Amino acid sequence: MSLLARAETSLAFSFEGAVGHSAPPRLVAAMRHAVFSGGARIRPQLTLSVAIACGDDQPALSNAAASALELMHCASLVHDDMPAFDDADIRRGRPTVHKAFGEPLALLAGDALIVMAYQVLLNAGHALPERLIGLMQSMSAGVGLPNGIVAGQAWECEPRADLGQYQRAKTGALFVASTCAGALASGSDAQPWVTLGASLGEAYQVADDIRDVMGLSADLGKPAGQDLLHTRPSAASELGLGGAVDYFQDLIQTAVDSVPACTCRDMLQQLVRRESERLVPSAACAAYRLPSARSAPVVSA
Amino acid sequence: MSLLARAETSLAFSFEGAVGHSAPPRLVAAMRHAVFSGGARIRPQLTLSVAIACGDDQPALSNAAASALELMHCASLVHDDMPAFDDADIRRGRPTVHKAFGEPLALLAGDALIVMAYQVLLNAGHALPERLIGLMQSMSAGVGLPNGIVAGQAWECEPRADLGQYQRAKTGALFVASTCAGALASGSDAQPWVTLGASLGEAYQVADDIRDVMGLSADLGKPAGQDLLHTRPSAASELGLGGAVDYFQDLIQTAVDSVPACTCRDMLQQLVRRESERLVPSAACAAYRLPSARSAPVVSA
Fold it and tell me: What is the ipTM of this complex?
């Protein structure tokens, strides 16, 4: 089974195991809409590939950890799309949750997905308390205060924000939790996997900034030009587009190099490179890198 | 130290232990505004009094459990007050979080408080994994799907809702989690404490309906007439005001009678009766009960 198929199957299994039979039907429908809508599932794939690299001796716990992190990601998308933030009508080519179900259910669906992420971990891990507690601590750090994705989003509401801190929190934190979860679910030390998550996560955020400026965002099913519109910190506006593209490629290289020696090193490195290409096609990068590469010798001559 | 003082001190300690030093300052301010604003702290007081009844051999864990449940309650208030739901300007006599900090930070503060509730439990309980896991399962059930307070709120978005199921979920679920948490934190069986939480929680919801109609809600620092305005299920509209008052008093009696034999039985029963009086003063009840009590013999004569 491919990583993507395993991530998708696990998510469906975890969701059904937590949802119960007596919940309000429209809330459940809104949550399903948020979760099962063709996401790339990069976070759970990261978790699963690191778990495999670490032996994956408790695959049900790895699956639950992968699912929990994707549920957190989906929760954040539901709330970020709401009128208070991006006011986005479209996500992954379909109506956003608040457009399809209204704002009250979007708000509640996000809340319920956050709690469900913990429920999924508890359902799968209560017999392995040490691993479970490590996973919950790591996931909480990836989402909550002081430096998780909720804090990252909140930096947009501050009069001043450090671009690096903002990006590490807004996207990097949940990527770090995702790589660490694979190790923790397998009873391994999470530390060697932090750099992979952090650099890949920051690369995602920089890619998002680049795509937003290049107008590529529509390919991912969401509107372009949002950073400028919402005056958000952006690598593209801080470094220029060429600088942002260079920075993105450096981050990808750091992620690739950080993968510890293990039987799955090739698989993980390929996963990172494939994602890099999907996010910012190298052809698009080259177009923006060439002018500065050509002009550099002229300036120094 | 009184129960209220212990609840308040614990909440401040738990909050500071989880908030960290590098979080966005306005987000932290919004969370403080939501949590430290003179709430009655009935849920944490319930947790602490049940913990004492069960021996309270791990007071730091009891304190954390009490705090976590209050954080969940505060999170739900922040989101419920937002324009998508009650659109309330005032809570406990002060501006609501979205009025004071804007909608984006209100949305994020609620999310961060949900995660913080888990962080508080993890910080205090990681050395007692069995109790910690029980507490997390119980708290998750009180908040999430299928029958927690988020589900309760979502029943307002359904075309049809059973009044009992709605009230049990919307308010009762977190009260059940609060009484059970006291037992679980002390290593005791939670089951004997379910009825106390469930009946007191339902009484709170019925009291809210009664107050909303009687116009007493302003005493609690929020606007009256919200149920009718938002066409929500309400005991007062389903049973009539007299019937709702009778039902409220039956629920309080059930709660009082349910307290298991223990050294703290009197204290707990007094807590319940004091809350009953605070919520719906017996003088107000009497005014609504007398006519039906007087007319009954006439009808049967």
Answer: 0.91
